[in-house]
Specification:
Layout: E1 3-12, H1 16-28, E2 34-37, H2 57-66, H3 70-76, E3 78-79, E4 83-86, E5 99-101, E6 111-112, H4 115-128, E7 132-134, E8 138-143, E9 151-156, E10 163-172, H5 179-184, E11 187-188, E12 195-201, H6 214-218, E13 229-234, E14 237-243, E15 249-255, H7 268-278, H8 280-287, E16 293-299, E17 305-306, E18 310-311, E19 315-317, H9 332-351, H10 357-375, H11 390-411, H12 418-423, H13 425-448, E20 457-459, H14 464-471, H15 479-507, H16 514-517, H17 522-525, H18 537-542
Helix pairs in contact: 1-4, 1-9, 2-9, 7-8, 9-10, 11-13, 11-15, 13-15
């Protein structure tokens, strides 16, 4: 006999997206009856569990403040030392290459997340908060209602009777399996066809020990580069190094197949051979740790799209069940935070008896805009990753765009504020157009650039405007101050774009700047008196 139950919300999938959504919903309304159904048995293994370990500002703020998990993050996870980039292709001495990163931590925190540790904690926290959590269960059938009737989820644990759960809302958080997406034919490819391989080693990779050069070691205030999300970059690829609180280290190779085909790295032995050729310093570190291998996996095409993630019929897709971008700037937890926030707002409107259709349409458009703008940071960009002049400029722009547009909307709780978004609609649209034009210009610059790889550090902490942009994310702002802040940040982005044009055309006057300059008002066309870009590497080396 089938056992039946009724809930307000059934979340199919108890990974990062599903568990955080359950907590967010319960924090907004403790009376909500939420059931999470997870395929994996708990507790899950630490370290060799899932990728997506590096968080950035939005995701970290979501975990810390929105969900109230700061104590766990401080006690059980690692505080991240920002992003760091080394142009280390073919080099055994890392002190001889250009390094991009901060000499000291920036003000707004982020974390390296051991997903096994975190998801085990989240599942227990859900239970403590009164969320129903069932592990080791498979979804047998999903029946979506077409009217006001409840949705029906049939699920089963091994050896147990079939269960039938009815719910007003059903959320697909099943990851790439995408049950609703597959059932409704919502899957869509995008233009970003890169692949990734990754593995975990049961030992620390201490990049600080890769060189004994005292000048190189002294560039950072503490010998903790290993706490960064370290990127080892070259034309067409990058390699990540991410430490985990359990003592393991996550290693990944992400590549454009036009430069490095997946078949050259899709086993651990092949990946090590590939590292021997392209990143010999990392290969030398890992070679003696082969017996500490914990797992190995790969994805041929990791990035994908979806035609719809929210519905007025009271279903939604959370996390990777909907869309996935690229791990280069670690946006996965950011988009979980944004998507979960929109889902929570829709559920709350429905609980209050308010109509959903208009808000679903607006949230879908905004979320799509965020996805498209962020995807532009990666599409056809991997070719310039080995350029020690263009990539640092791109990173500065990409950070500035993120901290000026997307992050303020989240930190200031304006994602669902239709009045604020309406007031800022034109300026946000201008920023989106400017970002697209800058990305096109960076690609063109990368095709002609041939900068030398010099032994210098481009210190993000040495740029006061950059540090302030990061710090100001947490400033409490009323409506008027928020609108003023965003408009001011848009002007700063225009000045930064103008300086990028000036830097590139100084050595490459043949570059076509017309499309980008057309988006810059006269006052920004000459740039800003304040230098917003790092000095050229040659100038730093000479100094």
């Amino acid at each position: 006999m089938t056992a039946e139950s009724t809930h307000d919300i059934v979340i199919m999938g108890g990974g990062l997206a599903g568990l955080t959504l359950a907590l967010q919903l319960r924090r907004r309304d403790p009376a909500l009856d939420v059931l999470v159904i997870e395929r994996r048995s708990h507790p899950v293994p630490v370290a060799c569990h899932k990728v997506g370990e590096s968080s950035v500002e939005i995701g970290a703020h979501y975990f810390e403040q929105v969900l109230g998990l700061k104590q766990h993050l401080d006690d059980q996870q690692l505080r991240k030392f920002g992003f760091r980039f080394f142009f280390s292709e073919g080099e055994r001495d890392i002190a001889r290459v250009t390094e991009l990163g901060a000499s000291r931590p920036l003000p707004t925190p982020s974390y390296q997340i051991d997903r096994g540790v975190f998801e085990n904690f989240l599942a227990e926290e859900c239970r403590r908060q009164g969320v129903g959590f069932v592990d080791g269960a498979l979804i047998r059938q999903l029946t979506l209602a077409e009217d006001d009737a409840p949705h029906v989820v049939d699920w089963q644990r091994p050896g147990a009777p079939l269960q039938r759960s009815r719910a007003r809302w059903v959320i697909d958080a099943c990851g790439r399996a995408g049950l609703i997406k597959r059932q409704l034919g919502l899957a869509r490819e995008n233009a970003h066809g890169c692949h990734a391989v990754w593995f975990r080693i049961r030992e620390r990779i201490r990049i600080d020990d890769w060189s004994a050069d005292p000048a190189w070691r002294a560039r950072c205030v503490t010998p903790t580069r290993w706490l960064s999300t370290n990127h080892l970059v070259g034309a067409g690829y990058w390699v990540w190094l991410i430490p985990l609180s359990s003592g393991s280290h996550s290693v990944g190779i992400v590549a454009d197949p036009r430069f490095h085909p997946l078949e050259s790295m899709n086993t651990f032995d092949k990946a090590m051979d590939w590292l021997r050729q392209y990143q010999p310093a990392l290969h030398a570190d890992l070679d003696g740790k082969r017996d500490s291998l914990q797992d190995f996996a790969f994805l041929r095409r990791f990035s994908y799209d979806c035609t719809q993630v929210f519905s007025a019929q009271r279903w939604a897709l959370a996390g990777e069940a909907g869309r996935f971008l690229d791990p280069f700037y670690s946006p996965g937890s950011d988009f979980i935070a944004i998507g979960n926030t929109y889902i929570t707002e829709l559920v709350m409107r429905d609980r209050a008896g308010q109509p959903l259709a208009a808000h679903v349409q607006v949230y879908e458009q905004i979320f799509r805009s965020f996805y498209d703008s962020t995807l532009a940071l990666y599409t056809d960009q991997y070719g310039l990753f080995g350029d020690p002049e263009v990539l640092p400029t791109k990173v500065i722009w990409d950070y500035a765009y993120y901290w000026s547009v997307l992050a303020p909307l989240f930190f200031q709780q304006r994602l669902g504020d239709l009045a604020a978004l309406s007031h800022l609609r034109e300026v946000l649209l201008q920023c989106k157009r400017l970002n697209a034009a800058v990305q096109d210009f960076l690609r063109a610059w990368g095709e002609v650039s041939g900068r030398r790889n010099l032994p210098v550090m481009l210190d993000q902490a040495s740029a006061p405007w950059f540090v302030e942009l990061n710090r100001a994310l947490r400033d409490p702002l009323d409506d008027a101050a928020f609108r003023t802040r965003v408009r001011g940040l848009a002007v700063q982005l225009q000045a930064l774009a103008a300086q990028i044009v000036q830097r590139a055309t100084r050595e490459h006057p043949q570059l076509d700047t017309s499309a980008l300059r057309a988006l810059l008002p006269p006052f920004a066309a000459q740039g800003s008196e304040e230098p917003l870009l790092f000095p050229p590497a040659e100038a730093l080396a000479a100094a």
